[in-house]
Amino acid sequence: MGQSGKETADVIVIGSGIGGLTTAALLQERGFSTLVFEKNRFPGGSCSSFSRQGYTFDAGASVFYGFSDDDRSGTLNLHTRIFRKLGIQVETIPDPVQIHFHLPGGFNIPACYSRDAFIDRLVSRFPHEAQGIRKFYDELEDVYRILSSLPAGSLEDIVHLGEVGLHHPLMTVSLAMKTFRSMGRTARKFISDRELLSFIDMEAYSWALQDAVSTPLVNAGICLADRHHGGINYPVGGSGAIPSALCRGIEKFGGRVRFQAEVSSVIIENGIARGVRLSDGSEHFARAVVSNATIWDTFERLVGDPRFSVPKNRFLCSPSWFQLYLGVDASVIPAEFFVHHILVDDWKSYSSPGGTIYFSAPSILDPSLAPQGKHTIHAFVTAEAEEWDRFSRGSDAYREAKDALAASVISRTERILPGLSKAVELKVLASPLTHERYLNRYKGSYGPLLKPGQNILQKPQNSTPVGNLYLAGDSTFPGQGVIAVTYSGVSCASYIARKLGKPLDYLG
Ligand SMILES: Cc1cc2nc3c(=O)[nH]c(=O)nc-3n(C[C@H](O)[C@H](O)[C@H](O)COP(=O)(O)OP(=O)(O)OC[C@H]3O[C@@H](n4cnc5c(N)ncnc54)[C@H](O)[C@@H]3O)c2cc1C
Question: Which residue, judged by its Cα, is nearest atom 4 of ligand 1?
Fold first, then answer.
């Protein structure tokens, strides 16, 4: 049916980010009819790929967890389990290092797949903290051990909670006790060296965009322990291979994904979501509506009823990004260079806009992403939308501001890649305005962050104050990151399936 015609489904999903697609795929496989509306011509949102002049770039995410094909590493290999359920193959390449950190004072450390190698390197830099290092990373290991032995489900689903509690009583109690703990406070119990604590802040900041004290221990247990178990694996063809495979899974079971279909509002009658209205005016109806947009975009734009506005002080709004997508001559990348890097010049400003440089060169793992003799580089720094709002797109001033910031990021990156500025053959730049416009994300934000003192259970779950309207994606528990939003999609699908009377099986 064309986009202007009325379509119905059991579940309509607004947005084809990984959270939305995961929800749709699992529900569709279970026998519910699903319909995904995506404003762009491609799926994946912050986990999509785009191509220019023979280069394929990851629009956002490049470091992927959850692809271990060894189920003995636990239940956190969600991508493997979901694709197995869908009967879809996604080929991946193992990455020996999560991130190579280049820190002030000549402190460099690769977070290797081998946990022993990583701990040994840390201990050799901080021998006086050997015991504290082991105790802290053992705590993360403990969280990982608990989480990876529990099946994924919704914390709002009483039946799921009951089953988990019944079959894993000790793990459940232990996890409940750790839920309220912070990564940074746990580190401070064992470690006092300031440089080491700064590194642990950076470990948190690398994905959470907050220091370790503001980061829940539970989140840290997933990312910083799973890198040594399931490991980091890169999808062949780039990040867009993941949403493409989820779309194939949805369509394989009869679901529909409509591109260039922007939802302008959720149709709500008497406090109950009945469907969605697209920007072409067409209306589509469902028993449940899932928004994969951010919590602010969902309630301020798509719901638009002041009774459901998100209180301004409920969360912190994380910054956005300034991003460089570079095609470079391969000779600038030395042999044995790792794929993912983080550069910090100064501990005082690492969390200020532009303070930390994130860098990935995924064509090192997958040469198909770049023409022969070339590499793709994705480098990015945090940036505030407010700083860029004064520019009109297409203006000289906007172009000059982007070029100036890009030149500074490239020049700072030359400390790990001498000659980079001369090796650049293609340069695509994206400001917070780009991020906001392409993905409909409020202020181009990375998403809501917990305020100091809040715990992870204060993140929104999938249900909302509007009946039959649900959220999936990085505004919801557990938060940002592709594996996290995948969890949110599993949780959302499980909760809806239970509500609609046909519960999902656990991911085997
Ligand atoms: C620069 C950057 C680097 C990152 N690096 C990593 C990394 O290395 N590893 C990692 O795990 N995570 C990383 N992340 C985070 C991760 O990519 C995100 O947390 C995750 O992909 C967000 O998924 P989501 O489901 O919340 O939806 P999003 O990715 O936000 O997608 C939402 C989708 O909904 C669509 N949409 C929104 N509104 C509408 C509407 N009204 N109508 C129709 N469609 C709509 C959008 O177009 C978009 O496609 C990174 C993010 C960024 C920005």
Answer: 61
CA of 220 to the centre of ligand 1 (A): 20
> Where does a domain end: 395, 416, 443?
443
pTM of the predicted model, to two decimals?
0.97
**Which residues, 6 or more positions from 355, have their beta carbon under 8 angstroms from its beta carbon?**
344, 345, 346, 349, 381, 382
Among the three residues 176, 197, 228, which one is the final residue of a domain in this structure? 228
Say how far apart CA 235 and CA 198 lie, in whole Å: 31
How many Å lie between the centroid of ligand 1 and the Cα of residue 465?
A: 23
Q: How far is the C-alpha of 51 from the C-alpha of 327, rounded, in Å?
A: 11
Whose alpha carbon is nearest atom 10 of ligand 1? 481
Cα torsion 146, 150, 155, 159: sign: negative
Parent domain of 252: 8-47+76-88+237-312+451-499
For the chain, the domain total comes to: 3
> Pocket of ligand 1, candidates 26, 38, 41, 46: which has the most ligand atoms within 8 Å of its Cβ, to mutate?
46
Confirm or reject: Cβ of 62 under 6 Å from ligand 1: yes
Rounded mean pLDDT for each run of 10 residues along the chain, 508 residues in total = 74 98 98 98 98 98 95 92 97 97 97 97 98 97 94 95 95 90 96 98 95 92 92 98 98 98 97 97 98 97 94 92 98 97 97 97 98 98 96 95 98 98 98 96 95 86 97 96 97 98 95
